[in-house]
Design brief:
Helices cover 38% and strands 15% of the residues. The strands form five sheets. A nine-stranded mixed sheet has the order 9-8-7-10-12-13-16-18-19. Bound molecules: S-adenosylmethionine and iron/sulfur cluster. S-adenosylmethionine binds at residues 271, 277-278, 282, 330-331, 333, 360-362, 388, 427, 429, 459, 461-463.
């Protein structure tokens, strides 16, 4: 350990310090640490230049400090080579901690310069502290970030519960339940009774916004909270970042102007598939199997539609079209829904080609009534396609009943050829059925040049619990952990932004709960559907042969 004075003399002799960052003054405010590093970044550094970073306290929930881990990730994300960071710390164990962090979270071959100095080092409990992950939501939009006040930054990036969604968005479910987003487990209104404008500032929405402003836990927002516990970037985190430019809407308190910036469109349940993870509420094709196995009354209508009349929702969205910045299309299957094509035609007519179009699609149909989706998209510049693919080949055809795998491949190849600019990723919903196969599927699509390694997300299964990976038997959980760790060794160096890594890491956390496998319930649900479709789970997924029966 070097006394501080001696170190300072040696630093003056050996380095040119371009700036100093005291991590203690940022506490766990990683948005500000990000800004500070971004401001000190230069186009190029000369060999003796350094940014000096000091750490004399850190938060612990593992064997290494959360601030040190976050510092490494931010340095990578801001894109400064590690070798231009001079870390000065009172942490006598820093080299061991940094080695682990460098091995696990870093993607730059160089290392921080580290100097340990005399002085006290404080270890704080990190139970409530989230490390900055590559997807923490704090984006490269520094100009926007620097406009935010400290209170706004705390709400958007450091709070546990605050979410900007109730100020910018509404989601209407096919069952007419209106919610702020698709993760919300309750409802704030009923679209079969009231207009969206009435619901926007009704009592429920006002109460929800009041809780948000006070950063209180909202039990209906549990899905995001659980995802964050698994260290997965939640919808809350990503939307707080993406829509931080609307933070001034908070000044209007709990009754903001009726302006929908983000609309989540699920007009009806029309779908050509009946995926095992889905149900009749989202897919008309689930009607027949659900009736056959006794999950649904045969008198339930096959087609379900939201709104007070035939085109009600479409008309209400159209009224908001000037305010809309992002449209999310799901369903049902969005690429076979006429109202979705009509919205695009209207946006096209108005010249609103910058509106962000986000799709979840099963990738089986690229045209409707002879109209290719590529023609409809031709003027739009900001398109994201999340392909809901949980497996490949016959495994895909088993899980997503009705899929013809060749159609999926053809659609993806067409997209690569016609619109390589589309932000495409595979969105795999993970269940007991496909958990062991998903890493192979990911590798296979990368090997076939259908995606880059980072274009793969893991979607957390919301229901049913008997299919959820955390309820897998212990032996299978062990196999999953082993397989995912190996997969991550391959993935981490190839996934510089960490967008795919995050999902696979979260599965390792997710399976480490003590939820139990209920074999009776599992097979009671699998076998009748297998009989209806004349398939057998173990034929298509032989890796599950040891599942207790
Ligand atoms: C209901 S689908 C509708 C859009 C489209 N048909 C599709 O499959 O992408 C929307 C998303 O929810 C996912 N999903 C379906 N069932 C789910 C479940 N039980 N838990 C979590 N996500 C689910 C799908 O994989 C898809 O990514
Ligand atoms: S394609 Fe989408 S909506 Fe259709 S059954 Fe599958 S998950 Fe549900």
């Amino acid at each position: 350990m070097i006394p501080l004075q001696m170190l300072l003399t040696s630093i003056r002799d050996n380095y040119q310090i371009v700036g100093t960052i005291d991590c203690n003054s940022y506490n766990n405010n990683f948005a500000d640490l990000y800004i500070a590093l971004q401001e000190l970044k230069q186009d190029s550094f000369s060999p003796n230049q350094r940014i000096m970073v000091t750490i004399t306290a850190d938060y612990y929930k593992q064997q290494h400090g959360v601030v040190l881990q976050s510092l490494q990730t931010i340095v990578n994300n801001v894109d400064i080579s590690n070798c231009f960071i001079l870390l000065v710390t009172t942490n006598a164990n820093v080299r061991a901690e940094y080695k682990h962090i460098h091995d696990t979270y870093n993607f730059d071959d160089t290392f921080f310069d580290i100097e340990i100095i005399d002085g006290s080092y404080i270890k704080l409990s990190g139970d409530d502290i989230q490390a900055y992950t590559k997807n923490s939501g704090i984006t490269q939009n520094i100009e926007q970030l620097t406009k935010l006040s400290q209170k706004q930054k705390d709400l958007l990036f450091n709070s546990k519960n605050f979410c900007i969604v109730p100020w910018i968005s509404l989601q209407v479910g096919i069952d007419n339940k209106v919610a702020p987003c698709c993760n919300y487990s309750g409802e704030v209104g009923d679209a079969s009774l009231d207009s969206l404008e009435t619901i926007w500032n009704n009592k429920n929405n006002q109460k929800l916004r009041a809780s948000m402003l006070e950063d209180r836990t909202v039990k209906e927002c549990q899905q995001c909270i659980v995802e964050e516990q698994y260290n997965k970037t939640s919808l809350r985190q990503s939307i707080n970042a993406d829509f931080s430019h609307h933070v001034n809407r908070l000044k209007q308190g709990t009754t903001p102007d009726y302006k929908i910036a983000y609309f989540d469109s699920r007009f009806n349940n029309l779908c050509n598939l009946s995926c095992r993870i889905c149900y009749h509420g989202s897919s008309s094709s689930w009607h027949a199997p659900a009736v056959a196995v006794g999950l649904l009354d045969k008198d339930t209508p096959v087609f379900l539609k939201a709104g007070r009349s035939k085109h009600d929702l479409y008309l209400q969205v159209n009224e908001q079209i000037d305010n809309i910045e992002r449209m999310y299309f799901a369903g049902g299957e969005p690429l076979i829904m006429e109202d979705n094509y009509r919205i695009l035609d209207e946006l096209d007519r108005l010249g609103k080609h910058q509106v962000e179009l986000i799709y979840n699609t099963n990738m089986t149909q690229s045209s409707l009534k002879g109209r290719s989706i590529f023609d409809v998209w031709k003027n739009f510049s900001n398109i994201t396609v999340g392909a809901s693919l949980d497996a490949e080949k016959t495994r895909a055809e088993y899980i997503r009943t009705g899929t013809k795998w060749d159609d999926v491949i053809k659609f993806r190849q067409q997209m690569l050829q016609k619109r390589p600019d589309i932000n495409f990723f595979v969105c795999s919903t993970l269940s007991i059925i496909n958990a062991l196969h998903v890493p192979d599927f990911h590798r296979s699509w990368v090997d076939k040049d259908l995606i880059e390694p980072h274009q793969f997300k893991i979607n957390t299964l919301h229901y049913p619990k008997w299919l959820a990976v955390e309820t897998a038997p212990l032996y299978l959980k062990d196999k999953i952990i082993e397989k995912y760790e190996k997969h991550l060794d391959w993935l981490r160096p190839l996934d510089r932004q960490g967008s795919a890594t995050n999902g696979f890491e979260s599965v390792i956390n997710q399976v480490q709960t003590d939820a139990k496998f209920d074999s009776k319930l599992f097979w009671k649900n699998i076998k009748p559907l297998d009989a209806f479709y004349k398939v057998n789970l173990l034929d298509d997924f032989p890796e599950l042969v040891d599942l207790p029966q």
